[in-house]
Design brief:
heterodimer, A: alpha/beta, Methyltransferase, Methionine Synthase (B12-binding Domains), Chain A, domain 1, Rossmann fold, 2 domains, 4-stranded parallel beta sheet, 8 helices, 4 strands, disordered C terminus, B: alpha/beta, TIM Barrel, 8-stranded parallel beta sheet, two-stranded antiparallel ribbon, 44% helix, 18% strand, globular
C-alpha cells in the first residue's frame, strides 16, 4: 500500500466506523515506518471531520458517531505507544474538563462529546453528571485545562451553564439537546 | 361508564395536556429533585397541575412519571420505589380527573443505551418499563403512554415490558428531528420504519412529540399518516429553549405562533393533539378553543 492509499484507507476506516481496519492500518503505518503525525493528521483526522459533517447533515446518527469515535480511539491506541517511544508529541487539542451541570443527571450528549473530543486528540477529564460548578473550575485549574464543557439537557439547568460563564478563565463550551446553534449565543460569554 | 379512550378517539380530535416539568419547577421543585418524588411528597401540587390542564380543556392528562422507569429513578437513588411512585402518579391524576376524561400513564425513555452503544439489553429495558407500568396500571391509568423515544429498539422493548404486566392500550410517541432527508430519531430511525414496527408490535396509537415545533410537526404527522392507519398522536415543542435577558428560560415559539399550526396538524392526520416542552395550560386552552369552534359547537 503506498502512502496515498494508506491515508485514504485510514480516512475510510474512520468514516465506516471500522475499528479493526483502523487499528490494522495504524499497525501497518508503524511497521512500514510511515510518518505517524502525517497519518494522524492526513489520514484519520479528515475521516473524523467527515463523520462530523455527515452528523450535521443528518446522514449519520448516534450509532455511526460512536462507531467512528471508537475506530479513532483504536487507531490511536496503536499509534500512541510508538509516538511515545519516539518521543514525538502528537498535536492534541489540549485538556478539556467536561460534565453535566448540577441538577441534571442526563449524560448522553456529554458522553458523546467527551468521546469525540477524546477521539480528536483532546485529553478529557470527565466529571460525570450532576456536577457542581465549583468542581469544574477546581478541576480545570488543577489539571491546567484550557476548555470547560458544560452539558445540560433540562431547560431548568440551562441557567447553570450561563452561571459558569464568567469574564475570565478557560473558554466554556455549552451543549444541550439539539440546540447547538440556538443555545450558544445565548449562554456564551 | 364513559367511552373507552380508543373509541373516543374515533369521535373527535382528542386534546392532550402540555408540559409537566416546567409546571413543577414553577411551583418550587428544586433542581436535581426527581419530579416523581413529588407524587408522594407534594401530591397536592401535582394534582393542581393536572386540574389546570383539565380545566383548560384537556381530555387526557399524562401522569407525573415521565422519568419513572426503574432505570431512570435509579439515577436519583429511587430505583426501589418505582412501583410506589408510579402508583401514586396515576392515582393523583385519576382522583382529579372529571368523569369522562382520561389518564395516560407517562413513561419516558430510560436515558440509557442498548448494546453495543450502551451496556443494557432489551430484557433489562423491558423489565424497567414493566415495573413502572404495573404501578401506573394499578393506580388507575386508562392507557400507557411510552413517550419521547429516541431509539426504536427501546420503544419496542418498552412495549413488550408493558404488555407483560398489563392489558391496557399502549400508545407510543417517538421524538424525531427534522433533516433535509426527512425525520429521524437520534438513532437514525425513520418515521415509516418506526410506525411499521410499532404497529406490528400491536400498539394502539403512534405519534411524535418533543424536539419539533408545531410548524415542523405538520410535516412529521403527514409522514406518519402515510405510514400507518393507527390513530396518530402529536405533541410539539414550543420551539427551542432560549435564555432571555432576565436570565429566565423561555421558548422560541410563542403561543399564537404555536397554535396557528394546530389545525394543520389535525388536517395532516393527528387524532390526539397536545403540547410538549414550553407549553402550559394557556396553550391547551387556546387549542381547546380551536377544537371547540371547529368540532364541538
Amino acid at each position: 500500500m503506498n502512502r496515498d492509499e494508506l491515508l485514504r484507507s485510514m480516512n475510510e476506516a474512520i468514516v465506516a466506523g471500522n475499528k479493526a481496519a483502523a487499528a490494522a492500518l495504524g499497525a501497518e503505518a508503524v511497521r512500514s515506518g510511515a510518518d505517524l503525525l502525517e497519518v494522524i493528521e492526513k489520514g484519520y483526522v479528515p475521516g473524523l471531520q467527515r463523520v462530523g459533517e455527515l452528523w450535521e447533515q443528518g446522514e449519520y446518527f448516534l450509532p455511526e458517531l460512536i462507531s467512528s469515535a471508537e475506530a479513532m480511539k483504536a487507531a490511536m491506541a496503536v499509534l500512541k505507544p510508538e509516538l511515545d517511544r519516539k518521543n514525538i508529541e502528537a498535536r492534541g487539542g489540549g485538556k478539556v474538563v467536561i460534565g453535566t451541570v448540577e441538577g441534571d443527571i442526563h449524560d448522553i450528549g456529554k458522553n458523546l462529546v467527551a468521546s469525540m473530543l477524546q477521539a480528536g486528540g483532546f485529553e478529557v477529564y470527565d466529571l460525570g453528571a450532576d456536577v457542581k460548578l465549583e468542581r469544574f473550575i477546581e478541576k480545570a485549574e488543577a489539571v491546567g485545562a484550557g476548555i470547560i464543557c458544560l452539558s445540560a439537557l433540562l431547560t431548568t439547568t440551562m441557567t447553570n451553564q450561563k452561571r459558569a460563564s464568567p469574564r475570565k478563565g478557560p473558554p466554556r463550551q455549552v451543549q444541550g439537546p439539539r440546540r447547538r446553534r440556538a443555545c450558544q449565543p445565548q449562554v456564551g460569554r | 361508564m364513559s367511552l373507552p379512550l380508543l373509541d373516543f378517539v374515533k369521535t373527535r380530535t382528542v386534546l392532550l395536556d402540555g408540559a409537566m416539568g416546567t409546571e413543577l419547577m414553577a411551583r418550587g421543585l428544586p433542581q436535581g429533585t426527581a419530579p416523581e418524588a413529588w407524587n408522594v411528597e407534594r401530591p397536592g401540587l401535582v394534582k393542581e397541575i393536572h386540574g389546570e390542564y383539565f380545566a383548560a380543556g384537556a381530555d387526557v392528562v399524562s401522569t407525573n412519571s415521565f422519568g419513572g422507569s426503574a432505570l431512570k429513578l435509579a439515577g436519583h437513588g429511587f430505583g426501589g420505589r418505582t412501583y410506589e411512585l408510579n402508583l401514586a402518579a396515576a392515582r393523583l391524576a385519576r382522583e382529579i380527573a372529571p368523569a369522562g376524561r382520561y389518564v395516560a400513564g407517562s413513561m419516558g425513555p430510560t436515558g440509557k443505551f442498548l448494546k453495543p452503544q450502551g451496556e443494557f439489553t432489551e430484557e433489562d429495558f423491558a423489565a424497567a418499563y414493566a415495573e413502572q407500568a404495573r404501578g401506573l396500571a394499578d393506580g388507575g391509568a386508562d392507557v400507557l403512554l411510552v413517550e419521547t423515544q429516541y431509539d426504536l429498539r427501546e420503544a419496542l422493548a418498552a412495549v413488550r415490558g408493558v404488555r407483560s404486566v398489563s392489558l391496557l392500550p399502549v400508545f407510543v410517541t417517538m421524538t424525531f428531528n427534522s433533516f433535509p432527508r426527512g425525520y429521524f430519531t437520534l438513532m437514525g430511525d425513520t418515521v415509516a420504519r418506526s410506525a411499521a414496527a410499532l404497529e406490528k408490535e400491536g400498539v394502539e396509537a403512534v405519534g411524535a412529540n418533543c424536539t419539533l415545533n408545531s410548524e415542523q410537526m405538520v410535516g412529521c404527522v403527514r409522514t406518519l399518516r402515510a405510514s400507518t392507519d393507527l390513530p396518530i398522536i402529536a405533541q410539539a415543542n414550543a420551539g427551542q429553549p432560549v435564555i432571555g435577558q432576565d436570565g429566565r428560560v423561555g421558548y422560541s415559539q410563542g403561543l399564537e405562533d404555536y397554535v396557528r399550526f394546530v389545525p394543520e396538524i389535525v388536517r395532516a392526520g393527528a387524532g390526539l393533539v397536545g403540547g410538549c416542552c414550553g407549553t402550559n395550560p394557556a396553550f391547551i386552552r387556546a387549542m381547546a378553543r380551536i377544537f371547540n369552534n371547529k368540532e364541538r359547537s
